[in-house]
Design goal:
heterotetramer, A mainly alpha, B alpha+beta, C mainly alpha, D mainly alpha, A: mainly alpha, Cytochrome C Oxidase, Chain A, two-stranded antiparallel sheet, 17 helices, about 0% strand, C: mainly alpha, 2 domains, flat
């Protein structure tokens, strides 16, 4: 049943396909959400590999005390751009630009995004922004070297002269606008392009998370852009917004930055939570456990995350400690609800450990620990002792690497057959997981101890007398193992490309609408749609005897043994 | 540049001193405090420093409470996760399991219990935070600490000023058992005044003057660092802390003051 | 439309409450303004949607019992291919780089942006893709 | 594939528009600058009133020395400790990170600090002009402190422009300075990432200090190379360059005498591209 006819003005259907561009020209001109989504993914993975290589250099520098593998200046540039690229150019765009673009319209039964040209524009702003950030390394004075947070007044023209910091500012502005446009696009698409019957409370959780992420971006990114403009004006026109000399307030930068920066953490995490919530039910062959609770937990995370920014500033002595401490502790509750929801979904299921599920379980494992150490840091006294140490580094890598890499690659493997029409080699994917998992834990668990022993973050060197050497060596070796894991992944992709195995339309017995179309989907996504009567229409279609609409609360007349278990 | 530090053997001392602290610290603290630290000292520190000040020990107790809760919660979560992972693996072709959508009872359980835990943690935090942040109105000593790129300056009463001297880091001298109020400022960029063994750090912010108290409970040498990234030589912005008995401290201070007037 | 309205109004109300609490407790201006803006982000579209939700029948995607046929018909114009977002991106990048290396780059960048504006308008008039 | 050709053709439009707009814009901005110059006619008058190599209008010494106030040494010491000592040592004796400053003289200190080059953010790149961290009195206090540690080095010069000759300065500048800074003083790249900076933000004192102390790769000109009078002449010419009379048209950023060719190529290329696009469009 064809329900969505595209209005291709003045182009008959046949001719449009005849003129279909290919190759580079397609890449430059396409407004198809699937191609833009894939472009986003490829581009962000390139940035991921570059930033990952920087991480290898950073860890190599820290392998020995008093190491001179790179100069302090180079080291500072490396960790600044490593952090900026991972946060602004990889983790966000990979999920929010890549997966959301590709999957969200498919999951709601839409032919494309609401604003296809705006979508293409945000991709190009993202690419040019990323290139702009890397350009810093090619200037005489090097890239920005003030950390990804760019604290004033270290980021002023006096303390960080040269083109590198300016390039960083411009780059983040471009990427920020890209993010805002994508957010507008996704929110609008979710509101106005759903297929008939796809009510808000039938949306897949992935769509919900992307939608909430979009709202968070709209709250957070404009603040960042405004702050960057202030910083630029300070640097070039002597505005003194952030400099004491002219009556400015340096700590205002921290307030503005973290008002963006903390929601940003959830902007990075929520899309990946969404992927996890898609993958766990499919491989457990059960619906999402506690759907509405999960939706409201997501909204609660979004709301609370905007009220916790100053927990990054506990040690400034200028913020209201109890308020931010309470809000930060509270955010553990909806996050905990999510974790228990995933476990509840697996509970009494038929959990199958194909590679996407393996990555997701790895994610839950890592993220639980990262989340719990986050609760520790929400207490100001504990933060006084561990702030800006490797304890924090380990904490946020567990959270962010956990989400962006474990959940991200779970999602990547999960939707890879849909996006390419090919399967990957399952054994290599599993090997990829195990090597990543071991490497990751070997890298970051020692960093908790390093932090407790008082190793500050962002130091280019440490002393032999500090007794940090052994733990740092373990961590560095772990980093190399993690790096090696991505060679396995690249090999897998290469083999899948050269010796393709055709994937079926629905290789995982998926639940949501993207599995109702072909692999890869046709130009306007759907030739026909199944009727949408529940949160997982494709499951209902394939398993009519277990269809959700027949027993919306899990009561199934064909399975009388369920009685008594609600 | 690096040779200057290895020449300073005393840096390794904190570890030695820390192991001795149990005995020495209790000798000096009051009875009530001894009772608290007795019970707390029997707990492991979970990797953290014992805290060489009353404020630091207060932090340690909060840390111990938090990490025990964390281990407890983490163990339950991981336990449930692993149970689910191993117990509910698909075996054979696998039947389709019961399609459970929700269970309000369990959802309430895993919402309310975390809320209760959070309330408990917040109450503990609030109490501890008030004590750690308290600034005495009549401290025995006031020291002004200036963070600059890339070093620390300590200003004692009577014009005594300690700065990095060539190859030697400055030493912050503190009297044991007495409360010292530190006034922390910076004139250039943000620095982090961090003494790991005191379980404490605070930003030196341009435009903001921060005050906080240290009441050391044990003598010895401790490391101090800059925790907030402050530019090129951030890693080498170090200092040392030496806690001595009040009499030793007074003779040290008067000898320094004589040097100033001389 | 009712669900969408609800989400926005919940967000707006939440932030409004937080704004009041934060302002009364801390009296700090920066955070209060940002939180207030966040409240506005929820309340403004929320009220707009509430206005519409009262005046229109539920759309097919709002009704759980809607059939697919109810949504048939054109959903909008979706350009297949167009170079102009790319050109605009180049222009924006040049304009951005002018902040680093000099005003003359902005002049080139604005050239690109203007030509995008002209050509996208023409493209819409001509109808569809380039 | 008519599709591609058509679009490639249309792609030329933004490029041509961009190029044409950029030329127009550069012309506009340069025009603005030169208009400002014309209004400050005192400089222009200076050109006509100076007789080539002739007598000076004033009998005052061309360069006098700034006396530093010894009472500022204490403030200078505090500032030095907090801002300079972690690299130069607490008594400016130098460390492995940065050189000894003792005996370099007040002019050196004043030059590096007042141009914002010091404190340095990144020692791997050439020190760049940036907003100075200190105001004038703080800078002089630091200079007073450092010069109090050891004698030697040039003092801070004060240039009396009234006693200087613009035309003599032009000659001296083209002989001694233009090779690196270019004849318009806009600065130029040298080898290995080193560059001669633009002189457009320099004050008379800073110019004279640079001549006398030779910062970075710049040669040092002692009184045997250039007399005080000659230095003052050069300063006067550089001050003129900062606000020149662009006779004959627009300055085009003072990139040098290639301006006309530059414009010709840009406009010519733009016109050719538009023509090519037009012909291509007709051929279809």
């Amino acid at each position: 049943m064809t329900i969505l006819e595209e209005q291709l003005e003045s182009h008959p259907e046949g001719q449009a396909h005849h003129d279909e561009p290919r190759g580079l020209y397609l890449w430059l001109t396409s407004t198809d959400h699937k191609i833009i989504g894939k472009n986003y993914m490829y581009t962000s993975l390139v940035f991921f590999i570059i930033a990952g290589a920087m991480a290898m250099l950073i860890r190599t520098q820290l392998f020995s005390p008093n190491n001179h593998f790179v100069s302090p200046q180079t080291y500072n540039e490396l960790f600044t751009i490593h952090g900026s690229m991972m946060l602004y150019l990889f983790a966000g765009p990979f999920a929010f630009g890549g997966f959301a673009n590709y999957i969200l319209p498919l999951q709601i039964g839409a032919p494309d995004m609401a604003f296809p040209r705006l979508n293409a524009l945000s991709y190009w702003l993202y690419v040019t922004g990323g290139i702009t950030m890397l350009l810093g390394f090619f200037t005489a004075s090097g890239a920005a070297a003030f950390g990804w947070v760019a604290y004033a007044p270290l980021s002023s023209a006096t303390n960080s002269p040269g083109a590198g910091p300016d390039l960083w500012i411009v780059s983040i502005m471009l990427v920020g606008f890209s993010g805002i446009f994508t957010a507008v696009n996704l929110v609008t698409t979710t509101f106005y392009l759903r297929a008939p019957g796809m009510t808000m409370f039938r949306l897949p959780i992935f769509v919900w998370n992307m939608f909430v992420t979009g709202l968070l971006i709209l709250i957070a990114f404009p603040v960042l852009t405004a702050a960057l403009i202030m910083l630029y004006v300070d640097r070039h026109f002597g505005a003194h917004v952030f400099s004491v000399a002219g009556g400015g307030i340096p700590v205002l930068w921290q307030n503005l930055f973290w008002f963006f920066g903390h929601p940003e953490v959830y902007i990075l995490a929520l899309p990946f939570f969404g992927m996890v919530t898609e993958i766990v039910p499919v491989f457990s062959r059960k619906p999402v456990f506690g759907y509405k609770g999960l939706v409201f937990a997501t909204l609660a995370i979004a709301g609370l995350s905007t009220g916790v920014w100053a927990h990054h500033m506990f040690t400034t002595g200028t913020v209201l400690l109890p308020f931010f401490s309470a809000m930060s502790l509270l955010i553990a509750v909806p996050t905990g609800i999510k974790i228990f929801t995933w476990i509840g979904t697996m509970w009494k299921g038929q959990v199958e450990f194909r590679s996407p599920m393996l990555f997701v379980v790895g994610f839950i494992f890592v993220f639980t620990m990262g989340g719990i150490t986050g609760v520790l840091l929400a207490a100001p006294p504990i933060d006084f002792a561990t702030h800006d140490t490797y304890f924090v580094v380990a904490h946020f890598h567990q959270v962010l690497f956990g989400t962006a890499v474990f959940a991200g690659f779970g999602g990547f493997y999960y939707w890879y057959p849909k996006m390419t029409g090919r399967m990957f080699r399952e054994n290599l994917a599993k090997l990829h997981f195990w090597v990543t998992f071991i490497g990751f834990n070997v890298t970051f668990l020692p960093q908790y101890l390093l932090g407790l022993k008082g190793m500050p973050r962002r130091i280019a060197e440490y002393l032999p007398a500090d007794h940090y050497t052994t733990l740092n060596r373990i961590s560095t070796i772990g980093a190399y193992i993690t790096g090696a894991a991505f060679i396995i992944w690249m090999a897998n992709m290469w083999i899948s490309w050269r010796k393709p195995i055709k994937a079926s339309d629905n290789p995982w017995d998926g639940h949501t609408l993207e599995w109702a179309t072909t692999s890869p989907p046709s130009h306007h996504n759907f030739e026909k749609l199944p009727p949408i009567r529940s949160q997982r229409p494709v499951w209902d279609m394939n398993h009519p005897e277990y269809a959700d609409w027949a027993n919306p609360d899990g009561h199934d007349s064909s399975q009388p043994e369920k009685v008594g278990e609600r | 540049m690096r040779s200057k530090v290895s020449s300073e053997k005393s840096i390794t001392e904190p570890n030695v001193k820390r192991s001795r602290f149990n005995i020495k610290g209790r000798n000096l603290a009051g009875l009530a405090l001894a009772a608290v630290s007795l019970s707390a000292c029997n707990l492991p520190t979970f990797g953290a420093f014992r805290g060489a000040t009353t404020q630091g020990q207060n932090e340690l107790h909060l840390w111990q409470g938090f990490i025990i809760t964390a281990i407890f919660v983490g163990a339950i979560t991981w336990g449930v996760l692993f149970y689910a992972v191993f117990k509910f693996r698909r075996r054979g072709s696998g039947n389709i399991p019961k399609q459970t959508h929700s269970n309000v009872k369990w959802e309430l359980v895993y919402t309310i219990i975390p809320v209760l835990i959070v309330i408990g943690l917040f109450a503990a935090t609030y109490v501890s935070e008030d004590q750690i942040d308290a600034v005495s109105s009549h401290p025995a000593l006031r020291v002004t600490v200036v963070g600059f790129q890339w070093g620390w300056k300590f200003e004692y009463p009577g014009g005594v000023t300690l700065v990095p001297n060539g190859s030697i880091y400055p030493v912050l001298e503190l009297p044991k058992g007495e409360t010292t109020t530190i006034k922390l400022i910076s004139n250039d960029v943000v620095h982090g005044f961090y003494i790991p063994a005191f379980n404490f750090s605070r930003y030196a912010l341009p435009g903001v003057t921060n005050y906080f108290d240290f009441t050391p409970t044990t003598t010895g040498y401790f490391q101090g660092k800059c925790s907030q990234f402050c530019g090129l030589y951030h890693a080498e912005m170090l200092f040392n802390v030496r806690v001595v008995s009040p009499t030793q401290f007074n003779s040290w201070l008067s000898s320094q003051q004589k040097k100033v007037t001389a | 439309m009712k669900a969408e309205r609800g989400i926005y109004l919940i967000i707006g109300t939440f932030f409004f409450v937080i704004t009041v609490i934060y302002f009364l407790w801390s009296g700090e201006a920066g955070g209060t303004i940002m939180l207030f803006a966040a409240a506005g982000l929820g309340i403004m579209p929320g009220l707009y949607m509430a206005w519409w939700a009262r005046r229109m029948a539920p759309r097919p995607e709002d009704r759980p019992d809607a059939t697919l046929a109810e949504g048939s018909g054109p959903v909008g114009a979706f350009p297949a291919n167009t170079i102009w977002p790319f050109v605009f991106g180049i222009g924006a990048a040049f304009t951005g780089l002018s902040l680093v290396w000099g005003v003359w780059l902005a002049v080139i960048g604005i050239g690109f942006i203007l030509s995008t504006a002209i050509n996208v308008s023409l493209e819409s008039r001509r109808g569809g893709s380039v | 594939m008519s599709f591609h050709k058509k679009t490639v053709g249309r792609l030329l439009v933004p490029v041509a528009l961009g190029v044409a707009a950029s030329v127009a814009g550069m012309a506009l901005f340069s025009q603005g600058a030169s208009a400002a110059t014309l209004s400050s006619s005192s400089v222009a008058k200076g050109v006509s009133s100076v007789t080539y190599g002739g007598t000076r209008g004033s009998s005052k010494a061309p360069i006098t020395t700034l006396k530093l106030n010894p009472s500022t040494i204490k403030l200078g010491h505090t500032l030095f400790v907090e801002n300079c000592s972690s690299c130069h040592g607490d008594a400016a004796q130098g460390t492995s990170r940065a050189p000894n400053l003792q005996g370099l003289g007040a002019a050196t200190i004043d030059f590096w600090v007042s141009t914002g080059r010091m404190p340095l953010a990144d020692p791997t790149a050439q020190a760049a002009i940036k907003p100075p961290r200190f105001n004038r009195s703080q800078t002089l206090a630091i200079a007073a402190y450092v010069s109090s540690l050891a004698s030697g080095g040039p003092p801070i010069p004060q240039v009396n422009l009234g006693a200087a000759s613009l035309s003599a300065g032009e000659g001296l500048f083209s002989t001694n300075c233009a090779a690196c800074h270019t004849i318009t003083g806009v600065g130029d790249a040298l080898a290995d990432g080193v560059y001669a900076p633009s002189l457009y933000t320099a004050t008379p004192t800073q110019i004279a200090e640079a001549v006398r102390t030779g910062p970075g790769n710049m040669p040092r000109f002692g009184t045997s190379n250039l007399s005080n009078q000659q230095v003052a002449d050069i300063v006067k010419y550089v001050k003129y360059l900062q606000n020149p009379n662009d006779a004959g048209g627009i300055g085009l950023g003072h990139v040098g005498p290639v301006a006309e060719g530059f414009v010709g190529i840009l406009i010519g290329l733009g016109a050719l591209m538009i023509a090519g696009y037009w012909i291509g469009g007709r051929a279809h």
